[in-house]
């Protein structure tokens, strides 16, 4: 039978692991957003015709998030 101290240490370790996993999930979301923006910039530079379309999409998204 485990002592109360061992059980408490296990609980603390599990809660630390959970919080670390949640932080990593948030970081990956931010990384995907940054990659999307960089790809959009590359497309705008490569093809000026698409730049207005991409800018329009980001403008629509930002207005939807603001409102």
Taken in chain order, the helices and strands follow as HH
Largest sheet: none
Number of domains: 1
Number of H/I helices: 2
Shape: elongated
**What is the helix fraction of residues, given as a range?**
over 70%
Topology, number of strands: 0
SS content category = mainly alpha
Alpha carbon gap, first and last residue: 57 Å
**Low-confidence residue ranges:** none
Query: What would the average pLDDT be, to the nearest integer?
Result: 75
- Gyration radius, in Å: 22 Å
Strand content: under 5%
Descriptive notes:
By secondary structure, the protein is mainly α. The chain has one domain. The protein has two helices and no strands. The protein is elongated, with a radius of gyration of 22 Å. The termini are far apart. The relative contact order is 0.06. The mean pLDDT is 75.
Brief digest:
The chain is an all-alpha fold and 67 residues long.
Key phrases:
93% helix, 2 helices, elongated, mainly alpha
Fold blueprint:
Layout: H1 4-46, H2 48-66
């Amino acid at each position: 039978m485990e002592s109360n101290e061992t059980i408490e240490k296990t609980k603390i370790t599990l809660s630390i692991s959970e919080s670390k996993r949640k932080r990593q999930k948030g970081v990956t979301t931010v990384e995907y957003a940054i990659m999307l923006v960089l790809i959009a910039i590359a497309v705008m530079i490569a093809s000026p015709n698409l730049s207005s379309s991409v800018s329009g999409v980001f403008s629509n998204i930002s207005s939807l998030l603001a409102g």
